Amino acid sequence: MTILRTYTIVDTAYHATCQTKTDVRWAHTTEVGIYGKISCKTWVTVDVKCESYYARLNKSVISDSAHPAAQKKKTSCHELGHTVGVRHYSAGSSPDGSTDSCMRSGPAAGEAWNTRYGDHQVKKHINPYFG
Predict the structure, then answer these.
(1) Quick check: 53 and 22 in contact, CB under 8 A?
(2) Helix (H, G, I), strand (E, B) or coil at 111
(3) Residue-wise pLDDT tens digits, 13-62
(4) Going by C-beta distance under 8 Å and a sequence separation of 6 or more, which residues neighbour residue 52?
(5) Cα-based distances in Å from 89 to 50, 54, 103, 110, 121
(6) Checking DSSP bridges between strand 24-28 and strand 49-57, what pairing results, if any?
């Protein structure tokens, strides 16, 4: 959340416990073969958008990865990105050519583990969604 708040116009509130206005609730999943996933908890039919999400991380798959600490940070950033309207992209397919986003699939061998959002994601998706 700190990364999201630092690089975007999203204003966040932190709660010690999940409350009725909590936008993202984090939990574990044991679904085979995935690092993480999100699902909508509450749909708003008027705006046709999700009001609150469940974000789940697969602790065992992340722990078995080559770089567990980096994978956990990247996957958390990635799943949180989905909750603010950002989609996947693969290396070389970002509209602005950026490779510095946690929304990118990967990383490829020798490349950095990205734990922030690229300029395209911030300017074209996240900020307009909240602006």
Answers:
(1) no
(2) coil
(3) 666 666 666 788 889 999 998 899 999 988 887 767 788 899 999 999 99
(4) 22, 23, 24, 25, 40, 41, 42
(5) 21, 22, 6, 19, 10
(6) parallel
Q: By three-state DSSP, how is residue 1 classified?
A: coil
The pLDDT of 68-77, averaged and rounded, is 89
- At residue 39, φ and ψ (nearest 5 deg) are -145, 150
- Kindly report the average pLDDT of the chain as a whole number: 81
Q: Which CATH class is domain 2-7+19-130?
A: alpha beta
Q: What one-character-per-residue DSSP string does 91-105 give?
A: TT-STT-----TTBS
114-120 long-range Cβ contacts below 8 angstroms, 24+ apart: 114/74, 114/77, 115/3, 115/73, 115/74, 115/77, 116/3, 116/7, 116/77, 117/3, 117/4, 117/7, 117/8, 117/77, 117/81, 117/86, 118/94, 120/94, 120/95, 120/96
The two three-digit tokens of residue 67, written as one number: 């770089």
Which residues sit opposite 50 in a β-bridge? 43
Domain ranges of the chain: 2-7+19-130
